Amino acid sequence: MTDRVLAAGAILREARPDDVPGMFARIVDLAVYELEPDAVVGTEEMLREALFGADPSVFAHVIERDGEILGIAIWFLNYSTWTGRLGIYLEDLFVLESERGNGYGQALLRELAAVCIERGYSRLQWSVLDWNEPSIAFYRALGAEALDEWTTFRVSGDALAELARRESPRS
C-alpha cells in the first residue's frame, strides 16, 4: 500500500514501529470513550511485539499528520469455514474526537475493504457496543449490516483459567 494523503494534510498508511506510542495512546483514548478507562492492561511493548515481532499476528493502519497519530485501525485475520477464505476482524477503529468529520474513519474502513478485495478475503467484520449510536449510524451509512442474531461470548481471567483446568466429562 502506498501512503494516501487525506483531508487536512493527514496521511493514511500502514503502521510502522515508531507509531506504537501514538497508537497505544489512541487505544487508551478508545477505552475511555467506551467507558472502560482501566481496562487497558496491555503495554506498548506488547503491542509492538504483536505488530512487528518475529511472527506478527496483528496488523494496523494509521492516520497521521506531522508525526501525530490521529486515527487507528488495528486488525487481525479470521477464517470462515463457510466461505473457505480468510477475512479481516477489525479489533479497534478510533479517530480523535477533534479530527472526526474529516473522513478518516471512512478512509480506514475503505482501506481495509480494499485489502480484503486485493487479497481475496471474504469479509470485513467488527463489533460495536450497542449504546454507541453514532458509530452504528456511521457503519450503517457505509453499507455495513448488524448481525443481531449473533451473540458474542468471551471467556477471560479466572474463568479462562478455570476452563483450562476443567476435567473432561466421563463417558
Mean pLDDT: 96
Shape label: globular
What can be said about the biggest beta sheet? 6 strands, mixed
> What fraction strand?
15-25%
The oligomeric state is single chain
Question: Regions with pLDDT < 50 over 5+ consecutive residues?
Answer: none
Q: Count of helices?
A: 5
Radius of gyration: 18 Å
Total number of beta strands = 6
Let me know the CATH homologous superfamily.
Gcn5-related N-acetyltransferase (GNAT)
CATH class: Alpha Beta
Give the number of domains.
1
Looking at CATH, which topology would you report?
A: Aminopeptidase
Describe this structure in words.
It is a single chain. The chain has 171 residues and is an alpha+beta fold. It contains 5 helices and 6 strands; from the N terminus they run E-E-H-H-E-E-E-H-E-H-H. It has a 6-stranded mixed beta sheet with strand order 1-2-3-4-5-6. Strand 5, helix 3 and strand 6 form a beta-alpha-beta unit. It starts with a strand and ends in a 6-residue tail after the last helix.
